[in-house]
Every structure is written in C-alpha cells, then in structure tokens.
Amino acid sequence: MARQNARTASTADQQGEASVSKSAVTRSRILDAAARVLSENGYAGLRLTDVAAAADLQAPAIYYYFPSREDLIEEVMWSGIADMRVHVTSVLDDLPDGTPALDRLLIAAEAHLRHELEISDYTTASIRNAGQVPQSIRRRQILEEERYGEIWRRLVNDVAREGLLRPELDLYIGQMLILGALNWAVEWWNPRRGSVEAVVANAQSIIRHGLVVHPS
C-alpha cells in the first residue's frame, strides 16, 4: 500500500505557495525515502545509496541536507513518534464533547493502529528500530515517547475515574501493555493475514473485555 507520509503531505499542501523552496521539497523526499528504507531494512541495513535511489538522487546530495547517516536516522526516528502524537491528538480533539472515556480509549487505539499500519512509514520505522539504534539517536525520540505516553495515561485514568477499570489492574501496567500490543502490530501484521479493520476490531475487543468491569 502506498503511503503519503505526514511530511510529504504537508509539503504537498504548500506546493502552490512561493515560500516552499525546491530545497524543502527535496529534504522531504529524502526523509520519506529514509523512513521507507529504515522501516524495511532496519538500522543496520540502511544504506545512504538505497535512500538516494528511493529519493531519485545521487547519494552525495544527502549530505547537503543531513551532516551524517545518523542525523538522517535521528530525524526519522523522532518524526515517527511526533507525527503519531499529533495524529492521535487530532483524532481525539475532533470527538464531540462528552464522548465517554472508554470510547475515547478505543478510538485512540484505532488511530494508533491506522497511523502505524496505513499512514506513516516514519512511525513504522521508529517503532521497529527503537531497540536497534544507539541511545544518542534515541534521545529526542524518548522525550517524544514520554509526551505521547502522557496521552495514554490520561485516557486510561479517565476510564478508571468513570469506575470502568477492573479493580485489580494497575493503571501504569495496563497502559504499557496496551501500547506494547498496539506497537507490536507493525512486526507481525500482513494484509494477507487480515485487514487493518480486523486488527482494529480485535484490539478494541481485547481492550474492552480485558480492562473493563462487566456486570456479572
């Protein structure tokens, strides 16, 4: 499935504006190509020649925009989580006032899955390579993960405040298990094994029946 990454879309939206330079468009092409190659080949397998080929450039041109291979990868890794946070926040902000806490949690799970599986190579690359890249590359990504995790902390806490969370569950552990399961989908999901809709429905069912108190 062809993906229009957040940065490509942002640049495309501005194509008619004189303020958008050829340099900015090229930089976005390099980042999009790097995200795709990193998501498919991993940190150790990312070669700048492959990124250049995917971006339809000569490899030395990349150094005009990024001082090193590590700087390019760092930007992709940070963008993957930052774009995810913006996407999920936007989806939640668009919900009507008074949307029940459980519905907000289930909708956030769908937004997360669709972003990593359908929308963004950046997010796929960031999740898949979080344990592979050096900590020096991960620093900015980790800060962004903490900001994103705060969204999920509030979502789970809101469900608990409405008296819906199973009393034996730890809020933090529950939050981390949800995020871990959602993130792991990038490793095993294949369209031949089921649609994204099926993945979303199963994830929502697990959350609904695993976290929520049901009348006996």
UniProtKB/TrEMBL annotation:
One example GO MF annotation: DNA-binding transcription factor activity
DNA-binding interval(s): 47-66
Region spans: Disordered: 1-20
All residue ranges annotated as the HTH tetR-type domain in the record: 24-84
Keywords on record: DNA-binding
PROSITE patterns in alphabetical order: HTH_TETR_2
Source species, domain of life: Bacteria
Record-given protein name: TetR/AcrR family transcriptional regulator
